Amino acid sequence: MGKHEFLTPKAIANRIKAKGLQKLRWYCQMCQKQCRDENGFKCHCMSESHQRQMQVFGMAPDRVVEGFSEEFLDTFLGLIRRAHRHSRVAATVVYNEYIADRHHVHMNSTRWATLTEFVKFLGREGYCKVEDTPKGWFMTYIDRDSEKAVKARLKRKRIKSDMAEDERQERMIARQIERAQKSLAKANDGDEGDVAEGESESESGSEEEYSGSDGDGEEQEEGSKEANKATGKIAIALQKSVPGPKVNPFEEKPKVNFGFDEDDSGVRGKERDEVSNKKGKDVKASEARRSALDELMKEEEKAKERSNRKDYWLCPGIVVKVMSKSLAQKGYYKQKGVVKKVIDKYVGEIEMLESKHVLRIDQDELETVIPQIGGLVRIVNGAYRGSNARLLSVDTEKFCAKVQVEKGLYDGKVLRAVEYEDICKISS
């Protein structure tokens, strides 16, 4: 058996000596060789294999250092993601866990000279949230992978909601067209009926005129003949009035009948009927105008609701409740916090009310908080999104609340049924 074979005592002793961590300054990253002392490291640097690796390094030193830096960063972030995904941990703890692997990429081969410089780089680039405390640097990993998954899921939801909204608009347009066609058909039927009534009235009137003029036909013919002889033109024959009886001026004046007394009650009845018909028509017209205005207001409310109804509702300054069961071990489950900042519309930075810790949580893992009656709320979704209101009452059976808008364009407007999910308590 050779001197340096695997099962020789010398090889076993060397492996035992090299089992633990060695000094970083005696490690060659290019050759991936750890030396136990300064003499061994000097001998290694003078070896032919090391010289060949240094020639490769001399051809593109920046690219080699950048490659080691990327490998170090990916491995370090992978360790944080696996072991400390939702916790705030000291940078030295993570680094000690990282260097426990003998075959890790050493920091002296990267572009970061110290651990502090590397931690500051993580904070600047947004990989982690870093804090400088008297006990050292602390890091909190920012979970970008879950944010991407949430964004993809919400994007699919938006696409489905847009398709459903397009279908609703098409159905609404079809209903409006049918309604307009029906109203036009009714209007045409009404006009035809009015025209028929007018024609029948005119025919009856003409018949009455002709029947009334039969008695004096001879006198009209004589008058028309005389007019034609005198002027040579065609004259219109008019009905002559019957001469009244002679009256003695010394006697009592007889009552003169002008022909209106007999039909006075009938005329007044007709006038009353016409006035009542006009009033009925005016009432119907006002009701029609009122119903049309109500429909327009409802359509406007629906349009406002569609335009302001979003799939995101977080906004700074509101109080929310954490409903993520994955944070139950940390003591954050069903705890309240204030939204300090909104990131990409769906993720909020929440400052917990009790511990004052700051967490980044997706809105799917949060819940709105309803204050006591009389408290201030913010409408976070729907037609009046972004308005502040005063809570008037709560309907626990229908899961809705009655609020009154304060300040702004809709000041004083009372909203009678706002869902719990659309309002949230404002932090004092």
Automatic annotation (TrEMBL):
Region (Disordered): 182-229, 243-286
Pfam families from the UniProt entry: C2H2-zf_KIN17, KN17_SH3, SH3_KIN17_C, WH_KIN17
Domain DNA/RNA-binding protein Kin17 WH-like: residue ranges: 52-178
Subcellular location: Nucleus
Listed Basic and acidic residues bias regions: 265-286
GO cellular component entries: nucleus
Keyword vocabulary terms for this entry: Coiled coil, Metal-binding, Nucleus, Zinc, Zinc-finger
Gene3D superfamilies: 2.30.30.140, 2.30.30.30, DNA/RNA-binding protein Kin17, conserved domain
UniProt-listed SMART domains: Kin17_mid
GO MF terms, alphabetically ordered: zinc ion binding
InterPro entries hit by this protein: C2H2-Znf_KIN17, DNA/RNA-bd_Kin17_WH-like_dom, KIN17-like, KIN17_WH-like_sf, KN17_SH3, KOW_KIN17, Rib_uL2_dom2, Znf_C2H2_sf
Biological processes per GO annotation: cellular response to stress
Biased composition (Acidic residues): 190-221
Family in the record: Belongs to the KIN17 family.
Name of this protein: KIN17-like protein
Species: Urochloa decumbens
